[in-house]
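pasting input
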Amino acid sequence: MTDTLQPETSPVTRTLPRAAITADVIKDAGITFLIALLLFGSIVGLRTETVNGVLVLMPQFGKALALAAAVAVGRLLLDVFIWRRMKDGRTFTSLIPSALPILKGAGALAVVFGLALYSIPGFRASLVAGAGTVHGALGAVADLLTFACESTFLVMAAMAIVRAARLIIGQTPEEAVGQGMLRRFTADFGREFPIALLLIALVLPALTAGPSQRYAIDTATQILIYVMLGWGLNIVVGLAGLLDLGYVAFYAVGAYTYALISTQFGWSFWVCLPLAGFFAALWGITLGFPVLRLRGDYLAIVTMAFGEIIRIVLLNWQSLTGGPNGINRIPKLTFFGLPFDRTGEGTFASVFGLKFDPLHRMVFLYYVILALALLTNFITLRLRRLPIGRAWEALREDEIACRSVGINTVTTKLTAFAIGAMFGGFAGSFFAARQGFISPESFTFMESALVLAIVVLGGLGSQLGVVIAAVILIGSAERFRDLEDYRMLIFGLSMVLVMIWRPRGLMSGRTPSAFLKARKNISGSFVKEGRG
Amino acid sequence: MDYFAQQLINGLTLGSIYGLIAIGYTMVYGIVGMINFAHGEVFMIGAFIALIAILSLFALGITAVPLALLLALVIAMALTGLWGWAIERLAYRPLRNSFRLAPLITAIGMSIALQTFVALTQGARSKPLPPVIRGGFTLSEGDSGFAVSLSYMQIIIIVTTVAVMAAFSYLINSTSLGRAQRACEQDRKMAALCGVNVDRTISLTFVIGAALASVAGLMFLAYYGVIDFFVGFVAGIKAFTAAVLGGIGSLPGAMLGGLLIGLIEVFWAGYFTAQYKDVAAFSILAIVLIFMPSGLLGRPEVEKV
């Protein structure tokens, strides 16, 4: 990521005598403890329980005390180890180099561990068996660490393959000259990393072979649905700068289109898929028309209202949608007409002479959603270079300037809504075909918020950012499933923390589609977010 | 006519609750320009703190209902205010001058975290509270046997709302804090140059918003007699709708919007179908915004080039 332009920041310098610092730190921690005690005491300290139909209070002050103490200790540690150092003009990122040897060591360990997972037979099985004996948070953390090591190893390996392939076909990475192996290895990170990710995605079913394969493929499919939704919403929010809080409405339209048409008329998935996209796009335009004049948060609330209206209608139009019971027995996806059934004539297994395995269907589903997601990405990337895509981005940067140079803002906004909605519709019909059952419960506002969070956490307008954010958010939510309720707590808090850490998203660089002379990566903070 | 009067009373009661929550949204929006999505959760926490306070006061032997309610109100306002302060300090202040969507995402994260936190610590089941204030007036006995009733609780809710609104208007219009707040709303940098402590003013805005939400929380709890960890979500969305309908950033607008949303909901449920009352509220919001893009009482945004 060379050539990344960064906005200038002015350092603040401040020095204090050591004793004053110590007193300051302790006082600070003490105040934190008191505030945290009041906060937690009010909600945790007394638990309301219904006993024989009457509410009674159960004191649990110990818990409140422990929580408050944990918060105070956490603040003390942060204060001593991070904030104090940041005060002499250094930023958090500038602290990283001093931790670089540790990071390198951890990375190397992760790679070795990951290699061991794949090369030593029986290692993974014994690990899984070992993890099975540890329950709760510890097991989840061990699980997550294993996952992190594994993915580090896979990414490194895939990047090595990509680099090797590029060298073989005679392409040299631009900045391959440099000191140190690591630096040379990551020289062309921006270009090689996406290809490496794609490589991993393509061979994932083979990589995950083993006892947990079904679970892994299922999770990956789940992640890819969100990647696709994120990419679709990225067109509306990231490119056109229109804040849409009701994106899940189009997802729902797509899902119900497929569910209704396939159950009522028996049409196949591949016929319904374009139809679902079409109807979702139609709804996108229907929503787009009235809100054309609205800006900023007014647009946000109306899109949210629209999403809620769709959900409530689905919930109450019993005769058509089945209401809260949803739609059952939606035909499953077939391999271009060949069903994945256990018995019967002309099933996938019998035609290809294979033994029946439920895995076939899952792997096929995985590849379908992968293809759909890649299609979304491909179309978005191409559209960005067309006049329409440039108009979207121009609209995001400055609507008045846009109008002044003769861009039709009405069609620009409507196409953004329609195309974004269309991809949402595709994802929805895939979702319906995968689940076999849908109900309005899957299309709540929380879902919209989740997709928006993926787009913003990844970095508005960054395609790669969406992938990374989806893997982290959805993947960790799946991994932490053992922790049940705690995982949503961790999920919410980590959303807050990541956003504070990187307000412009995990991917800091953007590649503008219009450039003078040479394509350059610029910092995300140069890109506007739109007022629409 | 009797039926209409009854619906009017019910609508005003519900609208008062929405209005009080909506003020928190609109105040925060006016001063920092962000949608505080966690505000619905602040309302929920306020209701829970009020519930715990009422139960503890009863357990301590304070059984005089008016006194217990008043004490619970004070406790809930103070502690919920603290929660509001903590949320701002933790999730919004680090992103004060960052880009617009960042605090929106932290707000959504906060909202998820607070919901699960309360579900974990207080249990996910709904909490029924036996009615603390019973009885009321019967205004008119209709010929058809339909009686219009006005319960004491409804009177208390409406009177409290009016009182709180009066105090609040005084605070905004005639105190130095209110002046500082209005100054920050217009131009934060200039306010800071004139000696207004901007950080403190914004913090206090969140505290006041949270305190008003806890008043609404207590009234919701006493009126409906049941709360759970999820009440904040729906109420929050409705109140936000109300704030936008009235014109976000405008305080009288928030109250008006709240009353309107309450009335629309109750009348729709009373005369048409209860299932589609939310659709009616949202549709009216959309229609109003199409013709008045900055809400009923909002100032249109002037754009300088």
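fyi The mean pLDDT of chain B is 88.
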